[in-house]
Amino acid sequence: MGLGFFTSFLILALFFRPFLCQQPNTDGFFVSDFLQKMGLSSSKGYNFSAPICTWQGVFCEKENVVGLVASGLGLSGLIPETSIGKLNKLEYLDLSNNKITALSSDFWSLGSLKALKLSSNQISEPLPNNIGNFGLLESLDLSSNNFSGTIPEAISSLLSLQVLKLDRNRFESRIPSGILNLHSLVSIDLSSNQLDGSLPDGFVAAFPKLKSLNLAGNGIRGRDSDFVGIKSMTYLNISRNLFHGSVIGVFQEPLEMIDLSQNQFQGHISQVHFNSSFNWSHLVYLDLSENHLSGEVFSNLHDAHNLKHLNLAYNRFSQQTFPEISRLSGLEYLNLSGTNLIGHILAEISEFPTLRTLDLSKNHLNGQIPLLSIKNLQVLDVSNNNLSGDIPVSLLEKLPWMEKFNFSYNNLTLCASEFSPETLQTAFIGSLNSCPIAANPDLFRRKSPQHRGLKLALALAISLVCLLVGLLFLAFGCRRKTRMWAVKQNSYKEEQIVSGPFSFQTDSTTWVADVKLSTSVPVVIFEKPLLNFTFADLLSATSHFDRGTLLAEGRFGPVYRGFLPGGIHVAVKVLVHGSTMTNQEAARELEHLGRIKHPNLVPLTGYCLAGDQRIAIYDYMENGNLQNLLHDLPLGVQTTEDWSTDTWEEDENDGIQNVGSEGLLTTWRFRHKIALGTARALAFLHHGCSPSIIHRDFKASSVYLDSNLEPRLSDFGLAKIFGNGLEDEIACGASGYVPPEFLQLESGSPKTLTPKSDVYGFGVVLFELITGKKPVEDDYPDEKEANLVTWVRGLVRKNQGTRAIDPKICGTGLETQMGEALKIGYLCTADLPLKRPSMQQIVGLLKDIEPVLHQ
Ligand SMILES: *[C@@H]1O[C@H](CO)[C@@H](O)[C@H](O)[C@H]1NC(C)=O
Ligand SMILES: *[C@@H]1O[C@H](CO)[C@@H](O)[C@H](O)[C@H]1NC(C)=O
Ligand SMILES: *[C@@H]1O[C@H](CO)[C@@H](O)[C@H](O)[C@H]1NC(C)=O
Ligand SMILES: *[C@@H]1O[C@H](CO)[C@@H](O)[C@H](O)[C@H]1NC(C)=O
Ligand SMILES: *[C@@H]1O[C@H](CO)[C@@H](O)[C@H](O)[C@H]1NC(C)=O
Ligand SMILES: *[C@@H]1O[C@H](CO)[C@@H](O)[C@H](O)[C@H]1NC(C)=O
Ligand SMILES: *[C@@H]1O[C@H](CO)[C@@H](O)[C@H](O)[C@H]1NC(C)=O
Ligand SMILES: *[C@@H]1O[C@H](CO)[C@@H](O)[C@H](O)[C@H]1NC(C)=O
Ligand SMILES: *[C@@H]1O[C@H](CO)[C@@H](O)[C@H](O)[C@H]1NC(C)=O
Known about the structure:
Number of helices: 19
Number of strands: 40
CATH superfamily of the domain at 623-855: Transferase(Phosphotransferase) domain 1
Protein name: LRR receptor-like serine/threonine-protein kinase
Keywords: ATP-binding, Glycoprotein, Kinase, Leucine-rich repeat, Membrane, Nucleotide-binding, Phosphoprotein, Receptor, Repeat, Signal, Transferase, Transmembrane, Transmembrane helix
Bound molecules: 2-acetamido-2-deoxy-beta-D-glucopyranose
CATH class of the domain at 623-855: Mainly Alpha
Subcellular location: Membrane
Radius of gyration: 34 Å
Membrane topology: Single-pass type I membrane protein
Strand content: 15-25%
CATH architecture of the domain at 623-855: Orthogonal Bundle
Largest sheet: 16 strands, mixed
């Protein structure tokens, strides 16, 4: 009987519920009504008659809209009732950068919201207590609106809140004590409002996870002791408030950026010892300007050798010499204006290569201006001192290219007349008086060489640019070779400001992300559009794509493991082998893949286009892939170990909990579950998507197991992004998954992949699941040809299929079912593609032999 029986079986199994990738649903009405009533015309590229889930900025789960991003669309006016307020599954809403003036009353029933972004609109009303309805909210951004009144106490209900941004509104009176409930807060920004009063008691200590606090630009009264108990905070900004006391109490671990400017901090700071547990080398940004600090500048500053920004301007310091900051050579901004300095400018600042802004105005400095490193210098103010002598020629030559300079009210000699009369009248006030133009003919004659000097500088600058361009070309030419760029190590916000190009090496490849500034390359996370991740976050998530985070090196390129901020566990797949698609096409394709959801597919979480690298970001799969599970024993497990003795357990819901994955494979039930789930995934890609998706590279290592040990298929759709070269590659591969039509065709004949190529691959994986043997190069009893397919097909043909069953599968009475499963594999691996069943049919066949739970 065998095969005859099977063909009739197959015909019976020919009914299936068709599934579609996206379908219009009732949420579509609410969204289109909202967009149209808010003034969005279909001319903006929206096709209101297309299914909602295909619209740009709309994210669906099943048939519900869970995410809506309508930022910068010019939406204006009131949000109408019975529109987006009715999207009861909505989790992410971004309406930023529009002209919205008011919210609807049903807006407050969006109880599923996890992230809400309304920033940069014109909403002019108090925030109602209804905000407490959003109990699942993790991120709330209402910045740059016109919200007024108090911040409601009901905010205390937002227990999951991590990000709170209410800055640039007109909120007034005290910060409500309800905020103390929000223990998950990571970032608070209440800056630029009209808040006053003091901070609620225990404010800082209430937020153990708080990293960033900005209260700047309010009228809050407080003192240094308000900040005792900082735990995680690296950023503190209380600029422009009414804080007083000694700044010393504020310096606490692990602060890196401190802005206390424009407050009323006082005290003789030079005489007090700063808390010794504060590590000055972590400090990156310090602004104490416009307070009432007295005494001299503290000597601990010398240890802050990673400091980039230092502003001590306008305090009440006693007369002092230039502070000892010679180790702070990474400074980019130095402002010591009005700090009562006498004596000479510290000579060492001429060796600060990154200095961009130097303000030494309003002091009593004398002597000459040192030879500054002018490479990055853009702002220089030495006005109102007693400096004398010539301005260094290199500096004079740089001035025309600088943003701002001021030499007024000194005793400098300036005889160059390249400057326009206006410049001379504003930037050199009081310095010209002493220029002995008339008195000293030598100085007068220096005019023309200096003029040439400027031209020379211009010529030099141009040739430098050419040289740079040339070098850049050279660099690009080399980068396909194994050349490594040193990844700049930078302590300031370490990964965030590093600039590229970046080069990374694995055992088999070197890949380069040709991006200039890692923070300027966005990472798109489909379901969390409000988290503005950048390539810099990928760098830090993977420790600069460190080999230690490498999970695998697949056909497409290396795969890394990482945690994005917020604890998002991801697998980062770099598609290194070049792509024929443009950035736009690749982005469109990846967005499309991101919308394809099925319980048996590994979800594509997001992507990043870094230079010409396409980087796909997937949910991390906790339990590895089928290839490892079947063929590679976990580390530390002996090959001789008897798997059948491993314990495993199932609960009522068919979920398998916390068992060593090796043990799972001892049941046919589990192996069948993997086969069926994988078949469902392929059937969905082939028949449920339009246009249908051919996986093209299906194999055991494409099947992953998630945290519930559900099988999930990965890498679907990537081949397309790769272009057609891959098909030749597949044909060349000897992996054991290549369908015979690819091996047999004469070279030169077209090799077209069809869904039936995937079906063949599925058959091979099914054989692997049942026999526990690898597709090639394993031990196949009584078989000379080293190939799983020919071996099993031979046995099935002789009706001896059960001899191929993996002896590690325990339990008896299931041999018949496993024999039938082998026959399904037999059909799938038919030589002629036409004879292979479709994946829909295979799902039906597998369901019919599903083992029932009986033990
Ligand atoms: C809009 O979508 C509908 C349904 O998908 C389609 O038939 C129609 O051609 C689309 N119109 C445009 C202008 O793209
Ligand atoms: C903000 O609200 C105030 C008072 O309601 C109003 O005078 C002002 O024009 C509003 N500003 C904007 C930009 O809407
Ligand atoms: C502090 O906040 C104010 C207002 O938002 C801003 O202008 C300033 O740049 C901030 N300081 C730092 C160090 O970010
Ligand atoms: C120093 O700071 C730690 C915690 O940051 C605190 O426990 C300790 O009391 C402080 N010591 C002084 C002298 O301020
Ligand atoms: C400060 O931090 C740096 C780098 O994190 C570390 O090397 C150094 O030992 C620390 N210093 C103190 C005094 O803790
Ligand atoms: C230096 O600091 C003072 C006080 O904050 C400020 O007014 C001035 O603009 C700063 N100078 C520069 C060049 O930024
Ligand atoms: C300015 O410096 C000169 C010496 O260079 C000195 O004689 C003079 O007293 C100084 N003037 C002031 C106001 O400090
Ligand atoms: C200006 O500098 C010259 C020397 O360069 C000095 O002779 C003169 O006294 C200085 N004038 C003032 C007002 O400091
Ligand atoms: C330079 O400083 C002087 C004195 O502070 C001031 O009057 C003048 O406007 C400044 N010029 C420029 C260009 O900033």
